[in-house]
Amino acid sequence: MSVKLVALRHVAKRFDNGTEALRDLSFEISRGSFTSLLGPSGCGKSTALRLIAGLASASAGQVEISDTRGLSFVFQEPALMPWRSVAGNVALPLTLQGVPKAEIASRVTAVLAQVGLAGFARAYPRQLSGGMKMRVSIARALVTRPLLLLMDEPFAALDEITRAKLNDDLLALHAAERLTIVFVTHSVYESVFLSDRILVMAPRPGRVVADIAVEAPAVRDEIFRTGELYNRQARAVSQALREAMGEADAR
Q1: How would you classify residue 4: left for phi > 0, otherwise alpha for psi between -120 and 50, otherwise beta?
Q2: Rounded to 10 degrees, what is the CA torsion of 119, 122, 124, 127?
Q3: What's the pTM?
Q4: Is residue 246 pLDDT above 80, yes or no?
Q5: Mind listing the domains of the chain with CATH numbers?
Q6: How is the chain split among helix, strand and coil, in percent rounded to 5?
Q7: Cα–Cα distance for residue pair 154/77, rounded to 1 Å
């Protein structure tokens, strides 16, 4: 039986300039699931994520999180402090929480190993590639041991090879840490590869127009990525997205 961790109920968001970003947005997120919010740019995906994170407030409706003890956010840009080392950037949330230095060192070392950066603790952001910077950002989010990880198009600016590798690593982290992940993307193929479930959103004002369960083997690897099951589901999700766009054009 699934345990609900997040619920949005008839949520609306209108900005001060009058832009209606979201209208009657409703969905639930189960503990341990990997859910992607998929839609075109400007459909309110990132706004929905910020509402869940508490970084913005809804104009109407309710946003409910059953356990707020562990929530981390990975933004589109790594946003690393250039004057701090990799270890220093990852340690920052724990430092702000007043965690003892010995525990910080232990947890930082462990999480850097998890994301494949064990040998880069003393490096600085200027010495890292784009993919490595994003790994640091993910490590910084994981070091707090969150129950819920919110990710806002974290791989969009990366090349396809790096993006595919980080997709693989993210799935491994999801399985190992039993994380609940809500992932924003505008890539059909990325959403199908990563997710248990895809929520397709219509253009502004954003709302869910399709709720698609993803069928996949226990291990999602290159065989799955190049197989018929994956491609068939990608075609179905693409069709749902086209229908959402067509519905918007018809309004």
Answers
A1: beta
A2: -40
A3: 0.93
A4: no
A5: 4-70+146-250 (3.40.50.300), 81-145 (no CATH)
A6: 40, 25, 35
A7: 7
